[in-house]
Design brief:
The protein is of the alpha/beta class and 140 residues long. 44% of the residues lie in helices and 17% in strands. The chain has 6 helices and 6 strands; from the N terminus they run H-E-H-E-H-E-H-E-H-E-H-E. The longest helix is centred in the first third of the chain and has 13 residues. 30% of the residues are buried.
């Protein structure tokens, strides 16, 4: 089954402070007849998770206020069953270690292409249970 057919009806949340990325991904998902909730901060994202829940969360590491890993920690208290994708230009051992501990399913290094995101989403959807650890996205 095609990726975006599988995503239809799923709640996908993007937490990204870069408006261009938020707007671009929102349009891309809309062109595929999928919905993407997109917010700028971890605080805004927590409100969405508490109110609606999510199936997949795609979060940037560097955010205003709390960072993406702190957001994931707090979000898991409300709903631990969502899949997690971390976007980052700061792929350090410390970030990877903490993300691994939080059960991040996929990493996507910035800058990224739509193909990188699609491949990570396919891998996340193929996993029946939240993975025991991250699988770094391949850079081409």
């Amino acid at each position: 089954m095609e990726l975006f057919q599988r995503l239809q009806g799923m709640k996908v949340l993007l937490v990204e402070d870069d408006q261009w990325i938020r707007d671009s991904l929102r349009r891309f998902f809309a062109n595929e007849n999928c919905s993407l909730m997109a917010v700028e901060t971890g605080e805004d994202a927590l409100e969405i998770i508490r109110g609606n829940g999510c199936d997949i969360v795609i979060t940037d590491y560097r955010l205003p206020g709390m960072d993406g890993l702190e957001f994931l920690k707090k979000a898991q208290r409300s709903n631990a069953r969502f899949k997690k994708i971390l976007l980052t230009a700061y792929m350090t051992e410390q970030v990877i270690s903490e993300a691994f501990r939080l059960g991040v399913n996929e990493f996507i290094e910035k800058p990224f292409s739509m193909e990188d995101l699609e491949e990570a989403l396919v891998r996340v959807l193929e996993k029946k249970i939240v993975s025991s650890g991250p699988i770094p996205a391949k850079k081409q």
